[in-house]
Write a structure and sequence with these properties.
The chain is mainly alpha-helical. The protein has a domain of 43 residues. 65% of the residues lie in helices and 6% in strands. It has 1 helix and 2 strands. The chain has a two-stranded antiparallel ribbon. The longest helix has 43 residues.
């Protein structure tokens, strides 16, 4: 195994790791929105989807995505 092969393996490894970390970061940044959407779906399917005051609030603050 030559130095060229070793350098290519190191570059490939770190490129793969950086790509993996970027993907994990992207998924984690979207997770709060996914959880809110899932809770809203569960609330609608559970029959609690009326025009109650609670439906527009999450954690005591009015949602801004409407």
């Amino acid at each position: 195994m030559s130095w060229d092969d070793i350098v290519l393996l190191i570059l490939a490894f770190f490129g793969t790791v950086s790509l993996l970390l970027a993907q994990v970061s992207d998924v984690l940044s979207r997770l709060p929105h996914i959880i809110r959407a899932w809770r809203e779906v569960r609330r609608e399917l559970g029959g609690g989807g009326g025009d109650s005051e609670e439906s527009g609030f999450t954690d005591g603050a009015r949602r801004r995505d409407h």
